[in-house]
Amino acid sequence: MCPVDDEYWRSYDRNREEWRKHDTRLDDLRADALRDARDLRARHERDFFEAMRTGNDARTRYLLGVAPASYIPPDSPVSAGYYRRVPTPTAEPRPETELIGWVTHYWGDPSVAEVYVMTNELLLAADELIIRGDTSRVRMTVTSLRIDDQPVTEVSGSQSATMWVPEQVRKGNGVYKIIG
Questions:
Q1: What is the pLDDT of residues 6-50, one digit of tens each?
Q2: pTM of the model
Q3: 143 versus 43: which is more confidently predicted?
Q4: Beta strands 145-147 and 97-107, pairing class
Q5: In this structure, what CATH number is given to the domain that contains residue 159?
Q6: Which residues pair with 128 in a beta bridge?
Q7: Within a domain: residue 64?
Q8: Is 90 part of any domain?
Q9: Cα 69 to the chain's mean position, in Å?
């Protein structure tokens, strides 16, 4: 073992003291940044709620949907187009569907699902389907149907067939035929 002289320990103590000062400065900077962010957020919240309470901020009322656009003064930034409301997406009407079966198996690599068709139902090769479950919803047109690896054009009730699906579906998902 090599001997360690006193100068080494003195320099070690000086460096350790410098590191401690540096860490203290970093902690102070972090605390200042957190305090500034907290103050800024509090100021923004105070301004927002004051504007909402007094009703003086037309932009805030318009963006929140509290005031219709007709209440906005013509010389405001909102009417000049600087602030725009994000239009709410209109939901497309749900097509009328009929449950014809369910998924009994899914293979991910070829993206193929095995579908059991219920009694008294018929699945054709050009039908539009919705496969719907708890976590998946796939709308598709049937392009290929196979029973025992033989291509078919229709599957009648109480039969299972495999078909290509564009997205992942899960066992137990319902298969609905779009009517009309």
A1: 777 777 777 777 877 877 888 888 888 888 888 888 887 777 777
A2: 0.50
A3: 143
A4: unpaired
A5: 2.40.30.10
A6: 141
A7: yes
A8: no
A9: 30
CA separation for the pair 142, 166 (Å, rounded): 10
Listed ranges 9-13, 19-23, 92-96, 157-161; the one with the highest mean pLDDT: 157-161
Amino acid code (one letter) for 13? D
Q: What backbone torsions phi and psi does residue 20 show, to the nearest 5 degrees?
A: -65, -45
Which segments of the chain does DSSP mark as H helices, in order? 6-54, 58-63
> In terms of residue numbers, what domain contains 137?
97-178
Pick left, alpha or beta for residue 111 (phi over 0 → left; psi -120 to 50 → alpha; otherwise beta): left
166 and 113 co-located in one domain: yes
Task: Give the 3-state secondary structure of residue 125.
Answer: coil
Distance CA 86, CA 98 (A): 35
> Taking the alpha carbons of 144, 149, 152, 157 in that order, is the dihedral positive or negative?
negative
Which pLDDT score, from 0 to 100, does residue 7 have? Answer: 75
Tokens, residue 52:
């909402």
Q: Are residues 60 and 129 in the same domain?
A: no
- Only one residue has tokens 């709620």, namely 49
Rg (CA), the chain: 33
CA torsion 29→34→36→41, rounded to 10°? Answer: 170
